[in-house]
Amino acid sequence: MEMESKIAGIRSVGFSLPDIAANRDEMVQNFVSHARALIDEGGAEVIIPMGITQCPVHIKPDWLQEQLGVPVVKASARRFAWRRCWPASA
Fold first, then answer.
1. Residues 4-58: pLDDT tens digits?
2. What's the pTM value of the predicted model, to 2 decimals?
3. φ, ψ (nearest 5 deg) of residue 47
4. What is the DSSP string of 60-71?
5. Is 83 exposed, middle or buried (0-12, 13-18, 19+ CB in 10 A)?
6. Fewer CB within 10 A of the end CB, N or C, for the chain?
7. Three-class DSSP category at 47
8. Rounded CA gap, 59 and 13, in Å?
9. Which pLDDT score, from 0 to 100, does residue 71 have?
10. Contact 59, 35 (CB under 8 A)
């Protein structure tokens, strides 16, 4: 199965890791805006944040899910799902 066909898109919030805390409000605004675009324009049915610094540290997954109206995969669950779907080859 090719995973690329399952990905609606990848977006950046526009800040490097060291700058996220100092620009938290703008980072959250960018994250929500980009996530909404992925849902509305790209057909995304779930949002998978790619770093724990953004979600859940600066953006609570439950709040984000409420704002977007689609499931948000928490970082701890993402690792489990990844291993379950793609086990290491023996």
1. 778 888 888 888 888 888 999 999 999 999 999 999 999 999 998 877 677 777 8
2. 0.76
3. -110, 130
4. -HHHHHHHHSS-
5. exposed
6. C
7. strand
8. 12
9. 92
10. no
